[in-house]
């Protein structure tokens, strides 16, 4: 119930306009992002790098209200890539195609993605958004991958279709980031029960790791904070004989920090996604929905 309400709130323009202005809500975001500026995000990336943890940098925001905003987002990310190179950081970017103007035409987002891939030799990751965008996201990934190999794509285990999508992508030797999925989806397209989503997650991890072993998945990234999933994926990797350096874990900034450090210390490749930007409301609501206990953390800020 609480999850549904929070996911509903994440798409509500009235709340998106008002809640972020309230001090206690803003204070609570510090748990999930170092700050709104790129400088704060990259300073945190530097701290992570000392621990041997790489980063993914994301500018918050999704569907745009004007096509000009897409140019501004593209410029922002080109700036991130320049700053990352200047600082010599092991940081990659992760973008939403809607932020690159997908709602104004797939060719606009595709051209933006192509320019980003051209501007760096590291992987440009594409986030997966709600299920209506999956087909067009896969098409754009395929089109740009033809000329730029440095692309990675997020796939969601809560979607029933993802097994097929993954099998169809393997001939491209893709870099895939596997997540459970963060949006409110109808039962026809997504598993509703956590046990089903988890079971599918492990099945997809098995396919990915097996593909890595056979040279058909460039970078499998297991993006979850679920320690039972992490343990099971490590077990699958051991059984298949996939080496630690051949797959990665990814988590969000501020979540399961101890586990992030533990994995990095034990020789696993770990990357942490750090967000920045002022449009954090929908993203933040989805983080609360993942763990309704976080709502108490927000409530506590009200009395600080
Ligand atoms: C690097 C990365 C990139 C992502 N990219 C996308 C994307 O492109 N598209 C997309 O749909 N989703 C994306 N997600 C979000 C993902 O789909 C899940 O919603 C999110 O990771 C929570 O699921 P979980 O796998 O951690 O498992 P869950 O079963 O939700 O959680 C397992 C445990 O992790 C901890 N935990 C999980 N979430 C939180 C939280 N918010 N606060 C505190 N503790 C928490 C809790 O201890 C919980 O019991 C991404 C996640 C990561 C880590």
Structure report:
An 8-stranded parallel barrel has the order 1-2-3-4-5-6-7-8, surrounded by 7 helices. Helix 1 runs antiparallel to helix 12 (281-290). Helix 10 links the parallel strand 6 and strand 7. Helices cover 49% and strands 14% of the residues. With 304 residues, it is α/β, with parallel strands linked by helices. The two termini are 27 Å apart. Bound molecules: flavin-adenine dinucleotide. Residues 127-128, 154, 156, 179-183, 223-226, 250-252, 255-256, 273, 287, 290-291, 294 line the site of flavin-adenine dinucleotide (FAD). The site of flavin-adenine dinucleotide has 23 residues, from strand 4, strand 7 and helix 12.
Average pLDDT level: 91
* The CATH class: Alpha Beta
Main β-sheet, spatial strand arrangement: 1-2-3-4-5-6-7-8
* Count of distinct structural domains: 1
Tally of DSSP β-strands: 8
Task: Please provide the ordered H/E string of secondary-structure elements.
Answer: HHHHEHEHEHEHEHEHEHEHH
Question: Sheet with the most strands?
Answer: 8 strands, parallel, barrel
């Amino acid at each position: 119930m609480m999850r549904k309400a929070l996911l509903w709130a994440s798409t509500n323009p009235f709340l998106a306009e008002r809640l972020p202005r309230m001090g206690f809500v803003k204070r609570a975001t510090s748990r999930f992002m170092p700050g709104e500026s790129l400088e704060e995000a990259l300073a945190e990336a530097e701290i992570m790098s000392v621990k041997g943890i790489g980063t993914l940098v994301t500018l918050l925001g999704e569907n745009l209200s004007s096509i000009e905003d897409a140019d501004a987002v593209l410029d922002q990310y080109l700036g991130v890539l320049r700053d990352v190179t200047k600082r010599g950081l092991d940081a990659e970017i992760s973008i939403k195609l809607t932020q690159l103007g997908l709602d104004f035409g797939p060719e606009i987002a595709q051209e933006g993605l192509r320019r980003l891939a051209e501007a760096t030799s590291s992987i440009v990751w594409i986030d997966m958004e709600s299920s209506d965008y999956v087909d067009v996201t896969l098409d754009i990934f395929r089109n740009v991958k033809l000329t730029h190999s440095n692309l990675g794509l997020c796939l969601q285990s809560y979607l029933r279709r993802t097994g097929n999508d993954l099998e169809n992508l393997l001939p491209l030797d893709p870099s895939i980031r596997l997540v459970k999925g963060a949006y409110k989806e109808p039962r026809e397209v997504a598993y509703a029960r956590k046990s089903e989503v988890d079971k599918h997650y492990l099945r997809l991890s098995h396919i990915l790791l097996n593909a890595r072993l056979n040279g058909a998945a460039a970078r499998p990234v297991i993006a979850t904070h679920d320690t039972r999933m992490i343990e099971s994926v490590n077990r699958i990797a051991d059984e298949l004989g996939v080496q630690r350096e051949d797959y990665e874990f990814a988590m969000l900034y501020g979540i399961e920090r101890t586990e992030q450090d533990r994995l990095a210390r034990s020789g696993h490749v770990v990357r942490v996604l750090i967000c920045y930007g002022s449009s954090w409301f929908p993203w933040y609501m989805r983080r609360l929905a993942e763990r309704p206990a976080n709502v108490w953390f927000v409530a506590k800020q009200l009395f600080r």
